[in-house]
Amino acid sequence: MPDPSPKEDPRTLRVLVSDAAIKRHSPMTHVRQLADTRRPVLLRYGNGRERGSWYVLSYAGNPKNPYHKVGNWPALSAGALFDALPGILARLAVDPATSTTLDGWQTVGQLLDWYGDRMQRDSGKSSSRKQAVATIIKKHLKPMLGKHTLVGMSRGVVDAELIWPLQERFSLAYVRQIFGVLIAAFRLASRLKLIASNPVAGFEFPDFIPEAIPIKEGRVRPDQIAALLAHLLERSAAEPVGVVLAYLMLCHGTRIGETRMARWQQFNLAGGEWFIPARHTKTGEALVLPLTTQVCSLLERYRSWQQSRGYGGVFLFPGVKGRCMAARQASECYQRLGNGEWTGHDLRKAARTGWADLDVNFLVAEALLNHALKGVTADYIHTELRALKRTALERWHAWLDGRGLAELRAADVFFASETGPRSSETGIAHKVTSRAGWLGV
Fold first, then answer.
1. Containing domain of residue 290, as a range?
2. Fewest CB within 10 angstroms: 96, 208, 406, 418, which?
3. What is the pTM of this model?
4. Residue ending a domain, choose from 207, 239, 261
């Protein structure tokens, strides 16, 4: 290795550099800088001698000026620098002009801690999204990548330490979700200039898993909807709140979070519209859904039923302590209704399949599902949207009426007196039917 100490500056002292050595030699004002005896690293003292600057030496680019500043001491400790050194030297060997600056964060774990905290305090994110990100960081990203240095991140590291172990244990869709959180954390830190460069910029999931991820089929086919509606009718006396939740999701293809948080003030029954605010949607875009006469009729009866039982709150699906139905309660509700054979998301998929069978325009169906639309597509869909969405839902609800939805909506038993034990605040029955299966199989 070339001599790292410039001959024109005799104030360079060669030692085994460490934080302790830096502090020990700090009072020696005749020593300007410490050069490590084992590594191409140099610590140059600042004017106050309590701080200093780290330099890495590499002659690959400009032999006359081999010094590349890396960071400041003590913010960047000797140990953190030495951990990152192999990655820095490798990058300089490939591109001598590359940035070598290390940031206040040295490890991936530190960056993830920042991102996780920021996500939890983001008022624009739903509680379910916050919980999902927190779980991914805590259970997967930090244990698998947390100790790696930022500059040491590479495709090889991501593949060997994250993607490949995960794909052995989880579905590819979930692995992609975990990967997406990692990329989002680095991208945001880079955008805010909190890191000098983004080491995972340009990484895409197909780099690691080139196979297309199959779309999981819904567990409610169109030919099963009549049986499902008959099952909901049978369960309506014991699970009135849950049946209305399922009714709205099947009729509109809404997500479970969007539906369980619905407030009465978001429904204009006279005008026939349901407004879902941006803070309740996965895409962060507000959604306006047409309400057909069938749905308005059901909701008017449901509201009267709530009031007759003494509930005058703001939520269609109340939970505990004046809040809406919690995600866990909704999941348990569907577990009872579907006997584990289908979920609320399967109702959303059934609606999407039904629209396709009815030849609903693809863009209209995507808008009803509140999928993100960009560019010209978004401009087109917003100018033509309102009438097209209403026409699509009117056709869909008429199709459902012919398979039992009308009977469910008109059944007197739907709002009969209380049967079975219920939660005092949610009105959700806890009586569970037999496990014979909702299709009778």
1. 222-415
2. 418
3. 0.61
4. 207
